[in-house]
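SAMPLE LOG
Freezer: B-3
Tube label: C17
Construct: single chain, 228 aa
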Amino acid sequence: MGKIILLRHGQSQWNLENRFTGWTDVDLSEKGREEARQAGEKILAAGIEPRYFFTSYLKRAIHTLQIAADAMDRAWVPVVKDWHLNERHYGALQGLNKADTAKKYGDEQVHVWRRSYDVLPPALAPDDERNPAREAKYASLTADELPLAESLKSTIERVRPCWEELIAPAVRLYDTVLVAAHGNSLRGLAMMLLHISPEEVMKLEIPTGSPWILELDDKLHVVKNYYL
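STRUCTURE (predicted):
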């Protein structure tokens, strides 16, 4: 029986400031660093020993993984960083305060952008300085691969090849893996693993810094899941 540990990054500075973050590379707050440390300690105390790590290209997830791995004394474990595990791209909303955005566009419209399954937020213009094509970390990707805005549906479609081509084979080979990523990319993994509907995944809330253990059978079907 294998295990996948899903770990949403600790609180980021923009979580603290109530801003849309998406692909903006914001670091952890002090609280977020403490959440990451405690997550590693919980995994260690549970006697769970991940043998392979995955994370995104964003430092709040990378640093969460590094801090948790140190707390587990498993900094030596191999790590794969994959942009497919990035947070949902919130387009032109990125950097905006959520409360201020609701005042400008209305609570109902912002709720649709945040909580619908297949509605896109306003997209970035290609020449916007926030376009990920301007960042060195994405230099090997084509314009077609890099989003200017994403719905939850398109985020999950982005995550799928990472699961099928990288994470699932690693579980079969290494038995226990940990994925440190983001609320919406982890929703995508949960949707695939738990076979939940779009309506259910929209309601799924994954807390920051809380290790979510999914125990799998030989066919990678979830037989038990719980938070530490």
